[in-house]
Amino acid sequence: MTEQQYQHEVIVPDKGFPFKLFLFEGHSGKYIREKHWHRSIEIFAVQEGELDFILDTTHYHLGEGEFIIVNSNEVHAIHANRPNHTIVLQIPLNQFASYFTGEQFIWFSHSERTYDEQVACLIFRMYKVYRMQTDGYDFEILSMFYQLLHILVKKYRKLDVQDELLKSNQQLNRLGMITSYLKDHYMEDISLGKLAGIFGYSPSYLSKMFARYAGINYKDYLQNIRLEHAVKDLENTDKQIVDIAFDHGFANSKAFTNLFRKRYGMLTSEYRKQLVKKKQRESYAHHRALLEKDKKVTL
């Protein structure tokens, strides 16, 4: 496999813009995304509610008006136990090419506080303008985007980067090719030995790469990918649990349900019941809103 064939979570910018801007997928709560990493720079800005981040081994709790910068190849996990309104800005790494401090490397601080309010406000404003799309919105968004990049490079960029961080970045680039392959083949029976052979490593070396640089063992990483896809089927289809399990590479339904209960603290059947109740509440609220609108039109 070549590096060009497999890149980990390549970010495709929104049409006409050098970035991606969207509402966080875990906005409804009860959301867990275990350890992963990608080449882009990500900023999560919480407008309402709260989020919990684990960057490497450090825990960060974000409240309203707070944000966090996730660096390229920075291993992180996200927990959103409750509903929230969080804006995500993904910036392809090449936007900072003129400011690399190493081979395709740039690092932003998590500790800078002076300009935090300005950064959060810019992201919230960008999202609002992006949603409204009035005349000239593209120029307004781009002006705010480049203002944000200026603040990041001027106030948050770290110049004194340790050699260990550079080495970790290089290793995670290599692991990125492997994890991209896993994302395409996760439903298959892929042993550590088989995967190592595909990429020209010994099983023991590949196992150590996962443990040291990703902070997770190979088996857990693969099962996390399977669980993410299985949960989407659990939410969006009426498939039987056993079919969902086999469709996404689990050895049996018990392996799926045990991992789900460990992660979400409930049975798959209970989770589905809660989703049905939630959809019923949303449908009722929507129906009431339409009735109120009709009343106003009649009056």
What is this structure's SSE topology?
Layout: E1 20-23, E2 31-36, E3 41-48, E4 51-55, E5 58-62, E6 67-70, E7 76-80, E8 85-91, H1 116-132, H2 137-156, H3 163-185, H4 192-199, H5 203-214, H6 218-236, H7 241-247, H8 253-264, H9 268-298
Antiparallel strand pairs: 1-8, 2-7, 3-6, 3-8, 4-5, 4-7
Helix pairs in contact: 1-2, 3-5, 4-5, 7-8
GO molecular function: DNA-binding transcription factor activity; sequence-specific DNA binding
Protein name: AraC family transcriptional regulator
Domain HTH araC/xylS-type: 176-274
Structural class: alpha+beta
Q: What is the overall silhouette?
A: flat
Q: Specify the CATH homologous superfamily of the largest domain.
A: Jelly Rolls
Number of domains: 2
Order of helices and strands: EEEEEEEEHHHHHHHHH
**Main sheet: which strands, in order across?**
1-8-3-6
Return the CATH architecture of the largest domain. Answer: Sandwich
- Computed CA radius of gyration, to the nearest angstrom: 21 Å
Strand content: 5-15%
CA(first)-CA(last) distance: 67 Å
Which spans have pLDDT < 50 for at least 5 consecutive residues?
1-12
CATH first level of the largest domain: which class? Mainly Beta
Rounded mean pLDDT is 86
CATH topology of the largest domain: Jelly Rolls
Count every beta strand, where a strand is a DSSP E run of 2 or more residues. 8
In DSSP terms, counting alpha (H) and pi (I) runs of 4 or more, how many helices? 9
- Measured as a percent range, the helix fraction is 40-55%
Main sheet record: 4 strands, antiparallel
